[in-house]
Amino acid sequence: QIVALNKTKEKMRPYQGNQEDEDPDIKKIKKVQSFMRGWLCRRKWKTIVQDYICSPHAESMRKRNQIVFNMVEAESEYVHQLYVLVNCFLRPLRMAASSKKPPISHDDVSSIFLNSETIMFLHEIFHQGLKARIANWPTLILADLFDILLPMLNIYQEFVRNHQYSLQVLANCKQNRDFDKLLKQYEANPACEGRMLETFLTYPMFQIPRYIITLHELLAHTPHEHVERKSLEFAKSKLEELSRVMHDEVSDTENIRKNLAIERTIVEGCDILLDTSQTFIRQGSLIQVPSVERGKLSKVRLGSLSLKKEGERQCFLFTKHFLICTRSSGGKLHLLKTGGVLSLIECTLVEETEAS
């Protein structure tokens, strides 16, 4: 068997032996041919690469990569903002609330910051995931990160729903001189860069819309056959749905608070403002002009008004009612006893075209 194997090897050797005995000129010709083939191949490859670099697909991919890089930078900045909110305000105020003479209660701290710390932890995880994806560049897979993020975004609903209330509680707490002094010390921290606590509390409000814009831009530069296309479209649709829900909730909450704020300014109160479907439209002052004819005045009279003097009325327009109030010398508002609350459902609007 060994002899047979050796014979087989011997049969394969002559080609190599012939190469060694080959004419030097033939070797030179083959070397030149090899060089020319390599040069032609490299030139063709260079042309292919240059054509691709100038192609619309490559330009789209460059823009897509730039969007992803910008997203990582924006996420890094947002995580830093949340870090400042939690470490320069939330945690110090928690400690202050546990002191012997607390300038703020634990309930107020919870009302102002709500789940800010949870949001920070969530985005720290998301940011680490983004950085890990960038480390594998040029392969960029992002859709699974949004799959992780989406189920946890309900915490944003709570924060957004609570936002106006948190600012209101903070404004009330600032009436306490000790708290106001302490807060100014925290805001003087170099990490805050001259920004107030209200500014940091507002940052999370814009994060969901920012993600939606980023996904719109990503999809604009993602081919239809791309492996991530469907996942990114699903993430965008879910974020848009969440954004609409949060917008509606914020609008409803702000409307209720606005109605209650107006109701509190009226000395007698106003039950119709406790209707949650009653939407505030605008407010302002109107001049009530007295009629010249005494008989006519008695028919259109709204409260006691002198025949010789015009009266300024503070008016509030809602979707269902129109309120007319007088302002006392102390600045308090009083509903007119007669005609102070007009139901717009039963009203007829008459436009007087004649100047007289």
Notes on the structure:
With 356 residues, the protein is an alpha+beta fold. The protein contains twelve helices and five strands. It folds into two domains: 56-265, Dbl Homology Domain, Chain A (Up-down Bundle), CATH 1.20.900.10; 268-290 and 310-349, no CATH class. Strands 1, 2, 3, 4 and 5 form a five-stranded antiparallel β-sheet that branches. α5 packs antiparallel against α6. The N and C termini lie far apart (129 Å). This is RGRF2 factor.
CATH class of the largest domain: Mainly Alpha
CATH topology heading of the largest domain: Dbl Homology Domain, Chain A
Beta strands, count: 5
Gyration radius, in Å: 37 Å
Helix content: 55-70%
**Alpha-carbon distance between the two ends:** 129 Å
Q: Indicate the mean pLDDT.
A: 82
Order of helices and strands: HHHHHHHHHHHEHEEEE
Give the topology.
Elements: H1 2-20, H2 24-53, H3 56-97, H4 106-113, H5 116-135, H6 143-149, H7 154-173, H8 177-187, H9 197-202, H10 207-220, H11 229-265, E1 280-288, H12 294-300, E2 311-318, E3 321-327, E4 333-335, E5 341-343
Antiparallel strand pairs: 1-2, 2-3, 3-4, 3-5
Helix pairs in contact: 3-5, 3-10, 4-7, 5-6, 7-11, 10-11
GO molecular function, one term: guanyl-nucleotide exchange factor activity
GO cellular component, one term: cytoplasm
Region (Disordered): 1-22
